[in-house]
Model the fold of this input.
Amino acid sequence: MRLPGDPAAMPAAARPTHAERVRSILAAAHSMTVVTDGVRSEVRHLDGSDVLGRLHLHPAPPAAGHPFSALTDERPAIRLEFTDIAPTPVRDRVRARVTVLGRLLTPYADEESEPGATTCVEYGQAILETAEGTSYIGLDELDEAWPDPLAPYEAGMLTHLLDDHPELVTLLLRLVRPAPSHALVRALPLALDRYGITLRLEERRGHTDVRLPFPSPLDDVEQSGAQIQALLSAARRRSHPNSLPA
Done:
């Protein structure tokens, strides 16, 4: 039972699904590695444009009984590799790795040599690797998921928070339960999505990631200001001191 004047309990820490995470990484990627015919090519000019705007993903034919199923293994394999790196200087900056596997239905179109061209790919699977483990995403899951509305803006928003308003990061520590220990060396913003903000609490040995959920998920980046302010207001109502060194 909450007594009058007590701060409201934080909502459950909702988070993106694995498919949403993959879609967001693809939407915000600035580079990728493409492997075809055993040759690795680095593509560094994506500029945060959704990779799926350049790739048309098609379902694989049935394993048997389909007139073209025997041709599947003869098509060149393609492997797309993405690395999701935290925009802030946290320890272990790699947040996730995504690998998309498939077979080429049309020749791979390099954006540098063929601007605006698209490539048709018979989709195999997407593999998401994070600190929590490895997940495999099918085409139906990927088709139903949407990129996070904050994905294209996340890096700029987090670096702005850290560079221009570091005191607000310290303030958000009041929402962390249990309270940070005296071993805490520093706290940095690690991730931002439609469900909330994640802080990385770095201690002398190791670190812990803590999600601070928004009161409700965002549908648009324009809603982010009000939701972040709601978190800050909740933090100001909390009284425990943080454990960061002065």
